[in-house]
């Protein structure tokens, strides 16, 4: 047995002394140890990449990846080493069910960061789609909110300009009527006589009145228009600042959660990528469950009998030690009682 086999046997959590007495079992336990070791390595790479995506710090990613890999290694080693080949298959399967569920969860945890790395190009494109979609949604939300805030100001300003345009049209109409009257154009409201007559004089007075009304209204509303323009411009500047400060950017939207969202959307819209994602996850779940399943479906071998004997020996030793302690304690109690009774009789 070389040092590599010994190292893998340590990884499998098997008892090397008992395996040396059953050499036919060594290869099986070496294989189990190799699966546990490589699962821990993949867990380290996966968690390291996930942490690097979050904090963008390679040293923190390496440290956390090693720590996570050691934890997965120790957990898998404990799960496999604690399984015992006792009872029928159904009983063993029930006993191993919590361990199988835990192994499946660990497989999913390990697979997800590696999926993000495998589909990185597709995820980057989907992130751009999400960023643009979020920008549009943010702009629509801000526009609606500020449209409601500035609605009263805009409505009042529009009403003022509508009134000004109406007065201007009335003034222009009066000017046109005066010109037609002077040049002698025949219409329903003009006499058709050339020159400046009484009708032209009345039309000039009407034109002058419309001009005065327009000028007076514009002079009256000018301060209010300036104030309304200031209010609307201030709201517009505030809206633009809020858009500039709140809208997502490509640099700020590349975290782990964002990539998970992009991958989830890709698997829903792209069937091929969704199938590939399921296969990748299935591979890692199967890899994580492999040591447990191998231990479960493998027949009971010499190593298992030796392990049962070894553990039963200690169990019997414990029972014998307890019986000896109980017997010794009862004897001491009986002796003490006899001595006490004799002392009482002597005193009497």
TrEMBL record:
Keywords: Membrane, Transmembrane, Transmembrane helix. The keyword Transmembrane helix applies. The chain crosses the membrane at residues 30-52, 58-80, 92-111, 272-294. It holds the Pfam family DUF4407. It comes from the Bacteria. This is DUF4407 domain-containing protein. It comes from Moheibacter stercoris.
């Amino acid at each position: 047995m070389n040092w590599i086999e010994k190292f893998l046997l340590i990884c499998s959590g098997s008892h090397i002394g008992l395996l040396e007495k059953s050499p036919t079992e060594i290869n099986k336990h070496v294989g189990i140890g190799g699966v546990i070791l490589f699962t821990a390595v993949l867990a380290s790479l996966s968690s390291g990449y996930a942490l690097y995506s979050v904090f963008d710090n390679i040293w923190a990613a390496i440290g956390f990846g090693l720590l996570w890999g050691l934890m997965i290694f120790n957990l898998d080693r404990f799960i496999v080493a604690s399984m015992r080949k006792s009872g029928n298959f159904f009983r063993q399967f029930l006993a191993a069910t919590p361990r199988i569920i835990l192994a499946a969860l660990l497989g999913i945890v390990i697979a997800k960061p590696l999926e993000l790395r495998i589909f990185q190009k597709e995820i980057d494109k989907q992130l751009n789609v999400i960023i643009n979609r979020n920008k549009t949604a943010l702009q629509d939300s801000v526009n609606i909110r500020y449209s409601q805030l500035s609605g009263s100001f805009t409505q009042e300003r529009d009403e003022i300009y509508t009134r000004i345009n109406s007065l201007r049209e009335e003034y222009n109409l009066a000017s046109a009527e005066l010109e037609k009257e002077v040049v002698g154009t025949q219409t329903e409201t003009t006499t058709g006589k050339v020159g400046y007559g009484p009708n032209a004089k009345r039309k000039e007075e009407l034109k002058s009145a419309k001009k005065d009304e327009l000028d007076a209204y514009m002079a009256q509303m000018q301060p209010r228009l300036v104030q309304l323009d200031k209010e609307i411009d201030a709201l517009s500047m505030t809206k633009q600042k809020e858009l500039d400060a709140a809208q997502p950017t490509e640099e700020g939207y590349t975290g782990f959660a964002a990539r998970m969202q992009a991958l989830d959307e890709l698997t829903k819209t792209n069937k091929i990528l969704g199938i590939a994602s399921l296969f990748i996850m299935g591979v890692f779940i199967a890899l994580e469950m492999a040591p447990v399943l191998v231990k479960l479906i493998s027949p009971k071998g010499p190593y298992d009998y030796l392990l049962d004997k070894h553990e039963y020996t200690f169990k019997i030793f414990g029972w014998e030690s307890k019986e000896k302690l109980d017997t010794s304690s009862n004897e001491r109690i009986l002796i003490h009682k006899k001595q006490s009774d004799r002392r009482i009789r002597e005193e009497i």
